[in-house]
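[Meeting: bench + compute handoff]

Bench side (C.D.) handed over the final construct sequence. Compute side (W.E.) agreed to return the predicted structure before the next meeting so the bench team could plan truncations. Sequence as handed over:
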Amino acid sequence: MPSLETPVLTVDANTIHRIDTRNVENLFSIWTLFSRCSGSIEEGRRLENLSWRLWNRETFCCAPGEANATTPPISISQRSSEGRYTADIPDLSRSIDSIDEEAIESDNEESASTSAPLTITRPRVRRQDSGCNRSRGKERHITPDDLEKMVITIKEKKDLESH
């Protein structure tokens, strides 16, 4: 979207602290607004970047267990212990449970007379992905007051550049 020379919208930095910064649905909505209207908002690109980073941080880096009394539970999906959103997916190790036990027993009985007993070793499944990031779940939540300070800083830097 082309940027307007004179923005038609502005963000009131003094009321930004009313945003619930622990509710990721609110943060996603704010990012969506800034990303679609960044060309019409004063410092729109910077606010879009800030809102995306805040949404990303709250979604992927902050511990899900720290609940804010004013924030309702996150409803878009359930968070796992690593802070990721997951559907109800069974553990990979449970896929071994589907082996037909009777077939194994009959195979064992047939081979018992000719060879040593057969033992089944279950593989250990270890998940290695970006969820193993050291900082995941250890970052502190950004408070609404912190967000307000960030927006004020963006506006002050704009004022410094125009002098």
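W.E. noted at the follow-up: The helical segments are 24-37, 44-60, 101-112, 144-162. C.D. will use this when planning the next construct.
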